[in-house]
């Protein structure tokens, strides 16, 4: 017998969720800031094509809308000031919880500050949290994190001997890459986090972290595995880039290069890098 087709809206939503869709967007941009003082608005895409599924009605509650818009430059300045004023990692987390200058905060479930041991000698920084991290509130909580644990384990490290964070601490909707503006706004926070954690070695996981923190514009295939220095603001520390575990999950042949980088990290930690 043919299975009966469930055409209910619930079935469609289940399908979307299973396919990884977890944020609703309409076809027309909505200025949520402008709506802050108006009652909830129903928004429909202009002209549905014949036979198309009814477009979703997106309601924006004024209660959820951010209080005031902030230009990116102003937001980056506010982030710099808030980050500089924090003198401990706990204070920095608190300042980031209060910060409203990055629009990603409105769509993310929570701030993903870090995971692991903030007093560890090695700090690894990725790009931004994904779905699992957004749900759990800790960095590298999902599949990429499990591979990262295996990578760390292969050189005798784990989350008690490594500190993990991201350049952008709020999950971009649908796991898209953070925009350059979002990255620029969040950069003062991760820089201050590195300064306060004060590790001996910084590991950039993937090209976005390498570009944002080390300013290296070369392809990661060339720059990975090469030792350089990162100025924390209070001292220079050794820094290296390797492939992001998300990339390694999709490109297994590259694992051998990541393995070389890990051995190089192990050597450096032993004091003869
Ligand atoms: N990818 C990242 O860059 N960071 C995480 O925390 C998880 C996945």
Describe the structure.
By secondary structure, this protein is of the alpha/beta class. The protein has a single domain, classed as Uracil-DNA glycosylase-like domain (Uracil-DNA Glycosylase, subunit E, 3-Layer(aba) Sandwich), CATH 3.40.470. It has eleven helices and eight strands. The strands form two sheets. Strands 3-5-4-6-8-7 form a six-stranded mixed sheet, sandwiched between helices. Strands 1-2 form a two-stranded antiparallel ribbon. Strand 7 and strand 8 form a beta hairpin. Helix 2 packs parallel to helix 7 (180-197). Uracil (URA) is lined by residues 126-130, 133, 139-140, 144, 166, 246.
**What is the residue-mean pLDDT, rounded to a whole number?**
86
- Low-confidence runs: 36-66
* CATH homologous superfamily caption: Uracil-DNA glycosylase-like domain
CATH architecture: 3-Layer(aba) Sandwich
Main β-sheet description: 6 strands, mixed
What is the succession of H and E elements? HEEHHHEEHHEHEHHEEHH
Could you tell me the radius of gyration in angstroms? 21 Å
CATH third-level topology: Uracil-DNA Glycosylase, subunit E
CATH C-level name: Alpha Beta
Ligand types: uracil
Strand order of the largest sheet: 3-5-4-6-8-7
- Number of distinct helices: 11
Q: How many extended strands?
A: 8
